[in-house]
Amino acid sequence: MDDFKDIQSCQYEISESNDGEITIYLQGRIDSTNASQMIELFGSLIKDRRPVALTVDLKKVTYLDDFGALVLVELKDMITAAKGQFNLKNAREEVLFILNSGALSETSPLIKVRPPSMFIRFGDAILKFGTEVKYQISFVGSVCLAFVYSFLHPKTLRMDDTFLYMQKTGVDAVPIVGMISFMMGLIMAFMSSIQLQMFGANIYVASLVSLAMTRELGPIMTAIVVAGRSGSSFASEIGTMKISEEVDALFTMGFDPTRYLVVPKIMATVFVVPILTLFSDVFAILGGLTVGVFMLDLTANAYILQTLKTLSLFDIFLGIFKSAIFALLISWIGCLRGFRVKGGAASVGQATTSAVVSSIFLIIVFDSIVAVMLTFLS
Amino acid sequence: MEKHKIIQVRDLTVGYGTDIILENISFDILEGEIFIVLGGSGCGKSTLLKHLIGLIPPLSGQIRIDGEDISNCNETTFKKILRKIGVLYQSTALFGSMTIAENVSLPIKEYTNLPQKSVETLVKMKLNMVNLKGYENHLPSEISGGMRKRAGLARAMALNPKILFFDEPSAGLDPVTSVELDNLIIHLNKSLGTTMVIVTHELQSIFNVAHRVIMLDKQTKGIIAEGNPMHLKDHSENPFVRNFFNRKSEN
Lengths: 378, 251
Fold this sequence. Notes:
The structure holds two protein chains of two kinds. Chain A is an alpha/beta fold.
């Protein structure tokens, strides 16, 4: 017979009878601090000696919680697997209480949900896609209806909110848009000047910068900044409202969530993003001008004249028109993703990511379509 | 034998900035008792709880858990204290992206070396204990409010902490579910000897489960009653306290 040995705050003693029965005497506390060591130790004991029966004596155990119960359950499993018998001795009332709270009776580990077969998942994906498309169409419909209603009843339009979003989306974005555009103008002028200088065509830097920025890069850069700043915030705002049941509250108070939440956002964005684009154009031309004056020995006057000569009103309006459509796409997809949030915090994050990614994708797609159309028309 | 004072609060002043909510309060919580903090709305019950679990440092005074001063100790000691406590938040704070079983197994996996199979068995036992058998693979959003509370309780006691804190456990539950939760609290207190600190104003569960209560008051910014609720109900000197326990209005 061994002497009492120590694991953390629990002591044990093992005795083996002649006919292959092992008795473990436990003493002290069995809890979360020593459960894993005990399972390991007694597990290897069972493996090595392969007893016909294992008896656990709990006479001197002072404390046993469900971690302790786990030890007993694991031992019972192991001895049963080794075709032995499991006995419990001197378990006090509290201990039995714990064991009966569904420990010894229920020993199977968790059943993992298996991923279903490929065909089921494929079908599932198609069904999901179908409901998603259906929802998007119905969302377009409800946004259109809400807009019609707001135009027919201008008083119901939430002006305060609209102005607030105008400030958040437009005014607050001026510094970052201005800065990015200025840099873009600078870079473009610099890169093109390297090529054009070889032909002594420095003055055409002004044409290139102004045309490229007003027609293409100005609207796109602005839209991407707005998608990152405001599209994401729309999605997370509505998404958070959705999971904290604020959207449901609006609905039960008789507000149409689309009219209340979506219309001000779309109105404000579509109104301010074109203006933001104009700012972007001006800052880009200023960037080009800086390079022209300080590196290419052009006079400011000549640069501006060349810019004015190149730009037609059509170019500027085309840029503004495109940016208005971009704004519509950004705010629409932001709100849509927000309304699709379900469950918890992770879903809000997903919606935000998806809002930004889809807006940028749609911006580029729409821009390409316009570019192709214009090529065929002219 | 004198019972061990597991939580000692001395001259505690709590508040936000210059806005003082409770001033110079002192009380003890004994090991193994069910202790209820109660009081009218806005008297600082939840704020007191947030201080007891170390989320907010006190303006002045001392909070000792198992002998350690939690507002004035180093990181390692604080981590050790956190292992001794479990909290059931009012809105349960289950992680929405994880299943119930994953929520419960998170602390077990982090703080013990049990093999995966044993962790799963243990999680099942824990969920059995709170009567959530069969809901292991559900997401928190897929089960009812009462079930979420019980799942939150299973997670809070995943490591069998010495002290369990409850913030309004029966808020938003129907009477039957509420009583079930009370019984579960009593059961756990008996079988594991866990100290329970409960913030609530649900009279029925106060009478059902409490060994001792303290009552906070907004006007005096302190404790206006302490003791056994049954005793306070009939024998308190303060008429406000008697009214509270007997559900009478002031007039």
